[in-house]
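Lecture 7, part B: from sequences to assemblies.

Below are the input chains for today's worked example.
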Amino acid sequence: MGLEGIGARVVRKEDKRFLTGKGRYTDDMTVPGMKYAFFVRSAHAHARIVSIDTSAAKDMPGIIDILGGKELQADGIGNLICGWMIHSKDGSPMKMGAWRPLAHETVRYVGDAIAIVVADSLAEARDAAEAVVVEYDVLPAVTQASRALEAGQPQIHPEASNNLIFDWQLGDADSTDAAVARAAHVTEMKIVNNRLSPNPMEPRATLGIYDEAEDHYTCYTTSQNPHVARLVMSAFYNVAPENKLRVIAPDVGGGFGSKIYIYPEEIVCLWASKKTGVPVKWTSDRTEAFLTDAHGRDHETTVKMAFDADHRIIGLKVDTIANIGAYMSLFSSATPTYLYATLLSGQYDIPAIHANVRAVYTNTAPVDAYRGAGRPEATYVMERTMETAARELGIAPAELRRKNFIRSFPHQTPVIMNYDAGDFEASLNAALAASDYAGFPARKAEAATRGMKRGIGMSCYIEACGIAPSAAVGSLGAGVGLWESAEVRVNAVGTIEVLTGSHSHGQGHETTFAQLIADRFGVSMDSVNIVHGDTDKVQMGMGTYGSRSGAVGMSAIVKALDKVEAKAKKIAAHLMEADESDIVIENGELKVAGTDKTLPWFQVALAAYTAHNLPSGMEPGLKETAFYDPSNFTFPAGCYICEVEVDPETGKTQIVQFVAADDFGNIINPMIVEGQVHGGIAQGIGQALLEAVHYDPANGQLITASYMDYAMPRADDLPSFQVSHQTTPCPSNPLGIKGCGEAGAIGSPPALINAITDAIGNNELNMPATPQKVWLAANAAH
Amino acid sequence: MAKVKMTVNGRQVGSECDDRTLLVHFIRENLGLTGTHVGCDTTQCGACVVHMDGRSVKSCSILAVQAAGSEIVTIEGLSSGGELHPVQAAFKANHGLQCGFCTPGMVMTSVDIIRRHGAQLDEATVRAELEGNICRCTGYHNIVKSVLAAAAEMGSAKEAAE
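Predicted structure of the full complex, as structure tokens:
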């Protein structure tokens, strides 16, 4: 692999700028004449706007203008849309209500944007926003999805009666019902997946710049997918045609899904820049982030897992209600359907599965994909239920899983997915060994002597990454293709620029992508630059989410490298008067195999550009482009084991050890992969122990709107983690990569809750397992 | 408006600002030092930590006028001459950062933790001391490793010097 090649623990190229304060995030950008925006937002969860009076505010110092939704609509700016069509089981299309970038008739959640204030300083904009008088006719609000479906609840959008957006199903209801009816044992659970706020540490921000002379817009934004932002803002929101809109996502401080979507603020700042004639910058504060960043999860599920007398699963029936919030965010319909129900076979051979999902409007912030997106919800349902079933059946949790593992591949599940490779037993065995599972009874006994209740729990997850084969997702309703693009430019001096449609917001692409080039051509990583995040530099690309940058983004680079290599070999063969098939590339040189003839890489590159002596008919230059469309999803899988001690006096949980054994296929940089797992586990532990978005059910006010109220995992809440990898290469892409970005957040919550329920002897416990909830559950069991 | 003078990264600076200007905004907007970040509104996240007269402070919790006359070091001034400070180097060697947004505050806090505890730091102390700095990417695993590695490195460098 070499010091810098595939599989090497290379420290990151991008680190120095972040460590020395030279990172450049959107809020760091300033341009001449730039002004500051602050948004007037709804104070109510549901209300009709009677009037908006900006007269006093407009007279305040420093105010450039205050603009509202009527003007926006009059200028032809479109409503926000959901880009994935889901049909209900009766064949009807999902019922999408209007989401105006600035509301001027009805507000539907606390934080709904109403007007933009543009001023010389942020403080002046904020002061004036407070002086805008909005008169509301307050309407009743509903925040819980199952409640919103009940008769007599507030109607949030006229299009969606009873607030039902779709009633969708996957799998075979009849065979599943039959399996449940004839089962020797059925484990039934009610499972709530708590609502979360993604909380990347960099708040969302945007800088809209309209250039009147060129009739051209530039948008700096905190985006995971700037090209998708440009496409959507052009094609659907009518901000500007694509050739007149440049979107730049510079350094982005984390995303976790929340920066996939196009929000009202990008659209409004671009429009406001044209209206006011000045560049307009908006940066979210943290409370705005809690109010308006798309939330994650929020499922209410009932599950029945049916077993035969031999403890084999013969059927799985799942009924889920998914809270979509007040508006349908860009991929909100896909998350609780094709990213969720398709994973309900887990790692198990299950002949019959049926899932029903109802998606529901409520007076809360929009809900969309958050790290894992549907797959954590599926894994939580499966693995809570498996562990509970093992306890009910009186067999070891590992043995129940072993008995039901899928062992031959490819494996077609009853819920669309075709698993192509895996070795679930290998990860289970690795995790059992690393956690000294066999030694647990002795540790439990020892803890009991200290008055502590010790528990152990596991979770065997599988997920689908490498999102996704375009034709497949198109047939399922996706409005876009999910390929990736790459361009490899070899400069005349032999240095290399790789332009990628993937976007790095913490994943370390500048390092891992450069490792790929170093590995391929034997050139130093220093001579390779990775360019991303600018629609003027990089051709159309689809961005980074769903752990797709390795499996899809790097595959596109490989395809472009194949073309570069082929052309370089042709040139080298011509110059060295050798047969093209005899040319090999090693250590930065092109060699004629079996001879001492060599040409340094840079000389071949130079020859391509001087073009004095190229093979007949060859075009000058050494630059190639590729688009890679995956042929299948990829299937990372693994086993997590968590061991806890619960203090029976206080209900407080202490994690004593956390073991992760993951199969990500081939790995480019183990250091970076481990970092992804650590971060994912921390978010999963956050969900399981600490985090929850709470709305006041009486009035829809967000109660958890700051770090004083929303419990983020901190250093002293978490242990260090033991991680390991087992490898079955992915057969569907050239590098054998499956993806690693979300696994930690997917696999960890059920392992932790299973450990706590084991400790307290009560299977009924909802996340987050706060000391109060754990204490109550522990004492209810006695 | 107030005219505020202070020493930042070894240089005398002065700038006019609104009385209500926070030190972090003075550093970012008036001085153009954008390495110090704002990650919350409630003094919880620590992305804005700088050193004021040798101690770590959250620059979102101090008015610029309160910092008048003080010596401020920001992430941009922690090292010089192209060399990384041992804490910065340890974060790089141990993959103690991902998106980089919390990193300046993490590094500035860590320098102060090591100053106060020296090479005797243990994992529990580092975790307790980092409670006021939130990272969403790393799960803290490699940050803790970085701080411990830097403390050991700086401790042995100090011993060698003595």
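Note for the exam: Chain B has a mean pLDDT of 96. Keep this in mind when comparing with the next example.
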